[in-house]
Amino acid sequence: MDFKKMTVYQIYPRSFMDANGDGFGDLQGIISKLDYIEKLGTDCIWLTPIYISPQRDNGYDVADYCSIDPRYGTMADFDELSAQCKKRGIAIMLDMVFNHTSADHKWFQQALAGDEKYRDYYIFKPSREGGEPPTNWVSKFGGNAWGKVGDEHYLHLFDVSQPDLNWENPALRREIYDIMGFWLAKGIRGFRFDVVNLISKPEVYEDDHIGDGRRFYTDGSRVHEYLKELNKETFGKYECITVGEMSSTSIENCIKYSNPAENELSMTFSFHHLKVDYKDGDKWSNIPFDFAELKRLLHTWQAEMAKGDGWNATFWCNHDQPRAVSRFGCDRKYHYQSATMLATVIHLMRGTPYVYQGEEIGMTNAYFDKLSDYMDVESINYIEILRAEGKGDNEILAVLAAKSRDNARTPMQWDNTVSAGFSTSQPWLSVAKNYESINAASALENRNSIFYYYRELINLRKTLDIIAYGSYRPMWQEHSGVLAYMREYGDERLLVICNFYTDEQTVDISEFKDFDNLIMNYDELQIDGDMLKLRGYEAVAMWV
Ligand code: TEU
Fold it and tell me: Which of the four pLDDT bands, split at 50, 70 and 90, describes residue 445?
């Protein structure tokens, strides 16, 4: 399968579809919705972790990599899903979390029991004087990154219940190859590797006096060696699609991770463009997004990755991000226009687009009105941290409303019945209140819905080589309201122009005498002499 022509649909199983009525999504629920996914036209589904887990981080804390968590179903359900997908020509991409395990994993339990073999699967260091942690590094979910056991500490870059694995140990790496072998033997040919650029830790552990510690372990010195070995020992023996989630990474490293000559991965997720609404790097702040910076980042990553023959996974949404239509668009007055404009930007770029469940119907942020509605471990940790900083509940509620990962995790809105058709009982996380108007059933009935616009974009990538393989050149870089770029392939040229604001924007298109529209989100263009006038969130792709 040519991943350059493909679009991936991300499923967060616990929030997708609940078939057994326990308020928690499951594999049978996914099976029941495969027709819907087939209709959308995506060629691959990425499932976030479905393995046995205490679910403190919703499955990113894996306790057994080769078993299905009973909340999701059984291995027989998984095999059925796999067979059903195969019949429809939909590939499955599994989420492999190899930077850390759950503290419940038997390796960690054996390590805690003092078994030397398993202690060396993790990163234990003696405590400093007074029982202090070995370094001052900060966990990605808040607080110090070391967990205390007796007179030593173990490293956890994420929650205290997610101890980091020691990739320096060849025996640990062999275990990981065996896990991969298990799923490859089942015929799985797609893998997403969670925070995989954090697996190579430094030789010396020292305090970070200028940051939170990430510079010591991000894109670490042996990470490329580890990925080459993982490739060679496991998925490299088959035709697979692989994507690495790269936290705080660099273009230079992403080129190496994804350039085919390096034999590491097919493509990379990077997140710089999703930090343009962080104040001085602080996610838990509420500021409008910096459009100039967003453009600069998208253009630079597009152009530079192409130069180095790397490959981007392009996306706005996933299970960790607020909903794009609420974040970069206008989810009330310009719901259709801004959702389709944002889709146009990503889907016509050079890269493999990812659609996160519900994005294709314009699902919005949760707009919870109580702190107790939040379930995510990161949000819950930060409620306490923000309180300790002296913030009041209303201020915290406003920050979470914009930033919490739960914005992405509310149940999929299937129809306008109770619980949005997701479940027959109370869902594990509240449904967004707008489900009566925003839902899949009404989107499918309306030929002019966001759903059908996505479907068209997905189909265009399959049919037009220029979208899959063309070059990328930023256009009108200094424009304060428009993001635009040119794709070129042979003698074809496709110009994409998108207005990121409600206000009208104009661009001078006099250099393009003849043009032909490929796709747009208003009925017709407004042209005044040499000027194209773009209405609120208008997007157009035209042959020029
Ligand atoms: O995410 C890694 C990650 O860096 C984000 O969680 C990030 O820290 C957060 O969005 C910033 O606010 C991956 C998974 O996608 C996430 O769901 C897991 O919680 C995390 O790894 C740990 O496995």
Answer: very high
Residue 193 belongs to what H/E stretch? strand 190-193
Ligand 1 cavity residues, CB under 6 Å: 57, 60, 97, 140, 158, 194-195, 245, 247, 283, 319-320, 378
Strand stretches in 415-520, DSSP E? 471-475, 482-489, 492-499, 505-508, 516-520
Per-residue model confidence (pLDDT) at position 87: 98
CA–centroid distance, 539 to ligand 1, in Å, is: 31
- Residue 516 falls in the annotated catalytic set: no
Task: Answer whether 532's CB lies under 8 Å from 526's CB.
Answer: yes
Quick one: pLDDT at residue 441?
A: 98
The residue from 95, 194, 219, 277 that is catalytic is 194
Nearest CA to ligand 1 atom 8: 140
Chain mean position to CA 368: 22
| 3-state SS assignment for residue 47 | strand
The rounded Å distance from CA 320 to ligand 1 centre is 6
pLDDT score for 460 = 98
Region for residue 55 given its phi and psi (left: phi exceeds 0; alpha: psi -120 to 50; beta: otherwise): left
- 206 DSSP assignment: -
Which residue minimizes the CA distance to atom 17 of ligand 1?
320
* CA angle (11 as vertex; 103, 397 as ends), nearest 5: 70
| Site to substitute for ligand 1 among 57, 137, 140, 218, most atoms within 8 A of C-beta | 140
Exposed / middle / buried, residue 136 (Cβ in 10 Å: 0-12, 13-18, 19+): middle
For the stretch 24-45, pLDDT in tens is 999 999 999 999 999 999 999 9
Q: Is there a catalytic annotation at residue 194?
A: yes
Counting Cα atoms < 13 Å in the Cβ hemisphere of 542 gives 17
What are the phi and psi torsion angles at 207 (to 5°)? -65, 150
Pick the closest to residue 497 from 301, 335, 345, 293 (CA basis). Answer: 345
Which phi and psi angles does 245 have, rounded to 5°?
Answer: -85, 115
Sheet with 526-528: list strands edge to edge.
505-508, 531-534, 526-528
CA dihedral defined by 131, 132, 133, 137, rounded to 10 degrees? 170
Instruction: Give me the sign of the Cα torsion angle 106, 108, 113, 117.
Output: positive
Residue nearest ligand 1's atom 2 by CA:
195
pLDDT digits (tens, 9 = 90+) for 114-158: 999 999 999 999 999 999 999 999 999 999 999 999 999 999 999
Handedness of CA 102, 107, 109, 114 (dihedral sign): negative
Q: Which helix (H) or strand (E) holds 225?
A: helix 223-233
Tell me what pLDDT residue 125 has. 98
Mean pLDDT of the chain: 98
CA nearest ligand 1 atom 5, residue: 320
- Predicted pLDDT at 248: 97
Q: What is the arithmetic mean of pLDDT over 91-97?
A: 98
CA-CA distance, 258 to 252, in Å (whole number)? Answer: 10
Q: Is the pLDDT of residue 513 over 90?
A: no
